Amino acid sequence: MQAIAPDFASAHLAEAPPAREPLWRIAARTTFPFVVVGALWELVAHLKVFPPRLFPPLEAVAATFGRLTASGVLPQHAAGTLLRLVVGFALAAVLGVAIGIAMGRSRRAEDLLLPLVSMGAPIPGIAYAPLFLLWFGLGSASAVLLVAFVSAFPVVFNTWTGVKAVKEVWVRAAQAMGADDRRLFHKVILPGALPYILTGLRLGLAQAWRILVGVEMLAAVPWGLGWMIFGAREFLNTDVMLAGVVVIGAIGLALEKLVFQRLEQYTVVRWGMMT
Amino acid sequence: MSATAERTRSMRRAAMSLLLAAAIYEALARSGLFPAALLPTLPAVGRALAEGVLDGSLPGHAASTLYRVLFGMSLAVVVGLPLGIMMGRFRPVEGFFLPLASALMPIPSLAWVPVFILWFGLGNATAIGIVFYAALFPMLLNAWTGVRAVNPLWLRAAGAMGADERALFWKVIVPGAFPFLVTGLRQAFLRAWIAVVGAEMLAASDWGLGWVIFDAKEFLRADVMLASLAVIGLIGFLFERVVFGALERATVQRWGMVRAGKG
Is A174 within 8 Å of A187 (Cβ atoms)? Predict the structure, then answer.
């Protein structure tokens, strides 16, 4: 299952050298590879090995980035993409957790839903895109629904696993101490399953992000980074594409670092359920 | 409950649930609430599937998709595996490539499709490039993590027993990192499988399961779409269960490194 995937991000964090080393040296060490790659890129671009339209020098990409940001085009595309991501993922999170908990708690729901979920899971989400376009038309609705559909799978699976993994002893202990169903759920099952649920949400968000850009290209949404870079192809605007790809990478990084690592710090790590 | 009884029970409930879902779908499709072109009945989907298989077009599309996936993945393994192992063994290599990998990883592979189309043109090269990009990072990072996760005690024990660098590598590090390498391969395939379908849709090239689905949209052939989706799902499932399952049983489970889990 995907849930057992090793956690690279935090493994990396844990490895970060203790504060002995001065900050500027760490910064220098991290930027060094980028300087090397950037220099190579510049060299290839300025020697005109490839046509400059297809392989623009970095300063051209930076200039395009600045121009598009100043004119507000790039922020608007980014906002469209983020909005779709948030709405789609929120749908997936709410429905996915609800379905997962139902499957974990009720035998009947598990019997009914598990075969369906495990049948849908091996089909890559993007393969449904044309079907969704056919059903819901071109545009944002298809993109949002597809993102929600695709990212719901890991959420459902992990929530279900998490609820099942709550230790029987805890449940019985809580019951022996007189917890009713509601308190059992809030105080034992939910916190117990939370590490798994968070893993599921994280995987779901990663999945959503990976699919969304592709879906935007297919669905011809009015504003969106995917559509922006795909549209730039018509005019051979490689600089626009690369500027868009940089923004996409930055958003992806921010999602991982700011959203999920934070969330984990505040909940499961603080409760001492995960280190 | 014995294992076999549990098994028949789960088979029965799976069959029940799928039958129920199929019946609901069929009722919806036949109710006339939706146009038949958009929501074809199951027999129509079955017919489309049979036609595609019999006239040889679906196997042909599947073959070209598989070719792209396997080609791209092999490239990713050839590059990612040695690089990841080197990153795990040597600090300077790690210091150089880790920041680059961390910066490239959050960019979804499909974001590169338009760039690759301009660079490599429509067709195989673009699809293979996207698959390579998608599969590279899971491979690289798992190899890196796997090497670093090898118990240092084993390394010292082997060193104390006189193992040279080569023996250390082949007898301790590679087997020790193997569960991670298998995980990496698995994740790489999952990513590659998504990437290839997306790349085929966007960089249309006449052949490939992704292209069939996308092309079917033009002709409102939802039955062809669903049939191709079934094929895509089947291939993905077979890879996950048969290929990777067998790989795991033949290596890490036999060596007793991970507990044999259920299914």
Answer: yes
